[in-house]
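User: My instructor asked us to take a sequence, write out its structure as tokens, and then describe one feature of it. I'm not sure where to start. Here is the sequence I was given:
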Amino acid sequence: MKVLLVATNRERSPYPVAPLGALCAAAAARAAGHEIDFLDLGMARSPLRALQSKLQAGSFQAVAFGIRNLDNCWAFMPRSYFQEVRSLAETVRHSFKGPLILGGSGFSVAPIGWMRRLEADCGVIGEGERAFPEVLTRLEAGRSLDGIDGVITAPRGDSAARVLPTRAVERLGDLPPPAHDLCRYAPYLRWGGFVGVQTKRGCPLGCVYCVYPRLEGRRYRLRPPDDVVREIETVAVGSRLRHFFFVDSVFNDPRAHALAVCAALERRKLPVRWNAFCNPLGFDAEVARAMAQAGCAGVEFGLDVATPRMLAALGKPFGQEEIRIALRAARDAGLPFAIYLLFGGPGETWADVRDTQAFLDECAPANAVFATFGIRIYEGTPMAGIAAREGTLSPGQDLFEPVYYLSPELADHTEEKLDRIARRRPEWSSPMDWRGPVARWGQKVTVLLNVRPQWKYMRGYGGYMRRRTV
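Assistant: Let's start with the prediction itself. The structure tokens for your sequence are:
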């Protein structure tokens, strides 16, 4: 079957993200014998015109959208991506008579909402490598899509969408590598982006707001380390692509697998640099040294909070001692690191915010601390249950439109008060900084100078460029 696969994500802040999920689906469909024409709108100047031209030029039997995000998850500067995708869907409907298929992580967090609003023919929930090729095969043969796990169908005129449970791919090593050849990475890297790579899928951790367990399952499924390195080498050899990002929910857990990936990278001695998301769980001196020796350029720690009470409230699997050990290990290994904080969880007060800053002052200093507030509530998460019990959510409320949880104790002049706390430290920044011209100018400069990671010199910028007030 000849299919046009469209990567719809156009968000470029803080940098544009290449469409790894769509490339995984494309590879699986090609391996099954389907013909894939790939249209990446991430860096397109005129996405509607690009889509229209592609539809007119090709004789496609189906069109598929890869939807990376539903919205930007920023309570202080919310942005929904629905209208952009709806415009693309309308373009397809006006120019194409075949089926429209939806998929991607942004689709999977609210599949019924997307199906009802776009009147798509079907959607693939969760991993698409098995379901997407099967959908194409059946559509080509004119057969029903009933019975394919992970596929949602909603015939027009039928208000009841049928949702089937997704069955995860157990052996990730059996999957073809992502179709990196279909993506023009140069513009992404030129504007601060990376080539994305997965070392595993799944997340058994219990953070109350997180959708990763829904998207990828609650059990880790590991890729063979040599496969990971082979993928990186294939992309890097013969190209000028040198910047990679391990996009796992947490790179360093399980610890033994992270060490094995680092060892495989060190053996190959590839001319690449890479970043990763980590948490303090098991992140010690051995892990930090292994990452540095394997070419790691920076670590992003998603702490969210750092006081014992709030770590428990958000379901974090680590405590303050693990945070101290992890940050010290990164510093001693020479790894630049950033910390991400998300304030406003159940029962949090301004005293907790100040205590968080005081605790981090006692730890190894970060290159950057990004402090934000407001927790996006997704259906089916413990956070949704907490919000419903407290009355933040109405019974049956549609969470397709962004709804945020914010502790009542933090609800008064949140942005201004958080900014005042952030300005006490040069490495801290707040949403008020990110809106300002200095931050935008600084980001442009780091991109032009190819600084990796972009936040590497944030402490220095803060010392000179931000007003130091208490």
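For the description part of your assignment, you could build on this observation: Residues 82-95 form the longest helix (14 residues). Try explaining in your own words what that tells you about the chain.
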